[in-house]
Design a protein that fits this description.
Elements (H helix, E strand, L loop, with lengths): L30 E4 L2 E7 L1 H10 L13 E5 L1 H6 L1 E2 L6 H10 L1 H4 L28 E6 L2 E5 L5 E5 L4 E6 L2 E2 L2 H22 L1 H14 L7
Antiparallel strand pairs: 1-2, 3-5, 4-7, 5-8, 6-7, 8-9
Helix pairs in contact: 5-6
Length: about 210
């Protein structure tokens, strides 16, 4: 008999019809399946296409409404670029409070063994940022990266919520995460020239207005 995990008692209504793995973990809609088993580290690229063309929630697969909520780290907030489509707010909030990688800063992302057709676009920063943001907006734009894969530019936010270990993050915690991730972005910007470095500085400054007040 499948043992349900305690956090599943608080699943949002739209997530309750999702499948569960043999350990009792709910399997988000976007997850790539291999030989009948969910590979939580990988996304189903068919679902990605459906999510951005039909405005479906990345977590539950149901149609989105007026508000779109991106789950991402502060470096995505700096560049306003992400490889993952938006979610319903309740699906996003449950995820940041219960997903092991999103709620546990000590978790390390491991990409070995992930099929090439299930990887994300862009240049990933393989670190756990320690804090997660919910970027609440009404729109996004898509564009192709150098590999021909789609990335998303998040629209101007209505608000940005910040979380660490499943609870609201402090301004100091968010700033520490930004400071630790910025060298990675600066390295990339320097290879692109002075204009890119200047643009990055402006982007970092722009994000400050969305940090927690305390």
């Amino acid at each position: 008999m499948l043992t349900m995990r305690p956090e599943n008692a608080t699943l949002p209504t739209r997530m309750r019809k999702l499948p569960f793995d043999d350990r009792g973990y709910v399997v988000p809609w976007f997850v790539h399946w291999i030989d009948g088993k969910p590979e939580f580290r990988a996304m189903d690229r068919r679902k990605f296409t459906l999510a951005i063309t039909e405005k479906r929630c990345w977590t539950c697969g149901e149609p989105l409404g007026r508000w779109l909520v991106f789950v991402a780290g502060p470096m995505c907030g700096t560049t306003r670029t992400t490889a993952e489509p938006p979610n319903h707010h309740d699906c996003a909030l449950w995820s940041v409070q219960n997903c092991p990688f999103l709620s546990n800063p000590s978790m390390v992302r491991r990409d070995e063994g992930i099929p090439a057709d299930a990887t994300t676009a862009g240049v990933g920063i393989l670190r756990n940022p320690g804090v997660v943001m919910l970027w609440v907006t009404r729109g996004f734009e898509k564009f192709r990266d150098e590999k021909g894969m789609y990335l998303l530019t998040m629209g101007e936010p209505d608000r940005v919520e910040w979380y660490r270990e499943g609870r609201s993050a402090t301004r100091a915690e968010v700033q520490a995460s930004i400071d630790s991730g910025l060298p990675n972005l600066m390295t990339i910007a320097k290879t692109e020239g002075p204009f890119a470095v200047q643009a990055l500085g402006k982007a970092v400054e722009s994000l400050q207005r969305w940090l927690p007040s305390a």
